[in-house]
TrEMBL record:
<comment type="pathway">
    <text>tRNA modification; 5-methoxycarbonylmethyl-2-thiouridine-tRNA biosynthesis.</text>
</comment>
<protein>
    <submittedName>
        <fullName>Elongator complex protein 6</fullName>
    </submittedName>
</protein>
<dbReference type="InterPro" id="IPR027417">
    <property type="entry name" value="P-loop_NTPase"/>
</dbReference>
<comment type="similarity">
    <text>Belongs to the ELP6 family.</text>
</comment>
<dbReference type="InterPro" id="IPR018627">
    <property type="entry name" value="ELP6"/>
</dbReference>
<dbReference type="Pfam" id="PF09807">
    <property type="entry name" value="ELP6"/>
</dbReference>
<dbReference type="GO" id="GO:0002098">
    <property type="term" value="P:tRNA wobble uridine modification"/>
</dbReference>
<dbReference type="GO" id="GO:0033588">
    <property type="term" value="C:elongator holoenzyme complex"/>
</dbReference>
Length: 157
């Protein structure tokens, strides 16, 4: 079990060169705590954060933020946007992202000591010696008043 800070499971899964992050959640397992952790991580490292209300097409903001060397984090309520008419946007955001973090309820149902599970898909980075790799991480989480615990399934007593 590791608490958010240096060396936790989420930071390890994210890596360091993330530019576009998609956070997916649902009503049963809200993922807003992931936004808080990403904001805390950015500000603790001396970075800055900007919040946008989209009035232009999404690609407009994506191009501008990339030119400014900024990261972009998008929160998607999957159970709302998974309808057929919105599926194109959801697929596009997943495609352009470097990292997809999905908060979901436990497949076994509710538990007092575990709030849900996170799946993190890190699409990796290009290097001279290997093609773009994709790594998938899965672990459980428990949101507490002053942080979040991340741990592998079955490792917490």
């Amino acid at each position: 079990m590791e608490e958010y800070g240096g060396g936790d499971l989420l930071s390890e899964a994210m890596g360091s060169a993330t530019r576009v992050v998609v956070v997916e959640d649902c009503v049963e397992s809200p993922g807003a705590f992931v936004l808080h952790l990403l904001l805390k991580r950015a500000l603790a490292g001396g970075g800055a954060a900007a919040f946008l209300a989209l009035a232009q097409p999404f690609t407009h903001y994506d191009r501008i933020l990339r030119k400014m060397n900024c990261s972009l984090v998008i929160l998607i309520h999957e159970d709302i946007y998974a309808a057929e008419e919105n599926m194109g946007l959801l697929l596009h955001l997943r495609h352009i992202s470097d990292l997809v973090v999905k908060a979901a309820p436990l497949s076994t149902g509710l538990a007092a000591d575990v709030h849900g599970q996170l799946s993190v898909v890190n699409k990796g980075t290009f290097s001279e010696h290997r093609a773009k790799a994709q790594k998938v991480w899965s672990f459980h989480f428990k949101v507490k008043e002053n942080g979040t615990d991340f741990f592998y399934p079955g490792s917490r007593h």
